[in-house]
Amino acid sequence: MAIALLVAAFTDLKRREIDNTLNLAIALAAPFWWWSIGLGWADMAWQLGLALITFVVACLLFALRQMGGGDVKLLTALALWFAPAGFGQVIVLMAMIGGGASIAMAAFNMERRPGEAMRDALGWIVALGWVFAAGAVVLALAMHRPVISPDQLGAVHAAIPQAWLLALIALAVVALFLFGFRHIMRRQKSRLPIPYGVAISAAALWVMGEQVLSSALVR
């Protein structure tokens, strides 16, 4: 399974495609995995239902051009391998990794126009902020700790005790992010083929490794 995910990530990165045979092999190997861990019929039905829901949602994203066909098939096949809680973690990690990579690639793909140096700078600040935030969330999930610790929250509250002022600052930051993100999207030189299969594979490998390590420690 881990080898198949590495191959999927490599082929998606190299030629922006994930082979149908690879996705099919991952899906067909799932029943053997169910048998090896002793899943009952009810648990198998849950896995099939999870895969069906994943396929429907992923197809909607494909129709909106937010996900490639190979990514849809890979994510659906992986839904057969993870319990709902574990698969939820895969989805969150995938979204964070893929989102950070997408905005970074979009920033490099911006078309420079005269008189827009400030807007370009804001776009880069937004891109770096987005990547930093995505990295912080991924690290927090990986380390099983909050994104912002109670001590950090306390320090923010001590520095800005007024709730209305904190809300105003938060709204200003959101507005700047939205403006910068809009500028990045409007100045794209070409449509970017995002290798989302890399994000899917990385997230699945991380969750799988974590589960294997947890099982080893329990034993």
Molecular structure report:
The protein has 219 residues and is mainly α. It has helices spanning 2-15, 20-37, 41-63, 69-79, 84-108, 117-143, 150-159, 163-186, 196-218.
List keywords for this structure.
globular, 219 residues, 9 helices, 80% helix, mainly alpha
SS class? mainly alpha
Distance N to C terminus: 22 Å
Radius of gyration: 20 Å
Oligomer: single chain
Average pLDDT taken over every residue: 85
Report the principal-axis shape.
Answer: globular
Strand content: under 5%
Q: What letter string, H or E per element, gives the SSE order?
A: HHHHHHHHH
In DSSP terms (H or I, runs of 4 or more residues), the helix count works out at 9
Percent helix = over 70%
The total count of strands amounts to: 0
Largest sheet: none
Question: Low-confidence runs (pLDDT<50, min 5 residues)?
Answer: none
How is the secondary structure organized here?
Blueprint (H helix, E strand, L loop, with lengths): L1 H14 L4 H18 L3 H23 L5 H11 L4 H25 L8 H27 L6 H10 L3 H24 L9 H23 L1
Compact description:
The protein has helices at residues 2-15, 20-37, 41-63, 69-79, 84-108, 117-143, 150-159, 163-186, 196-218.
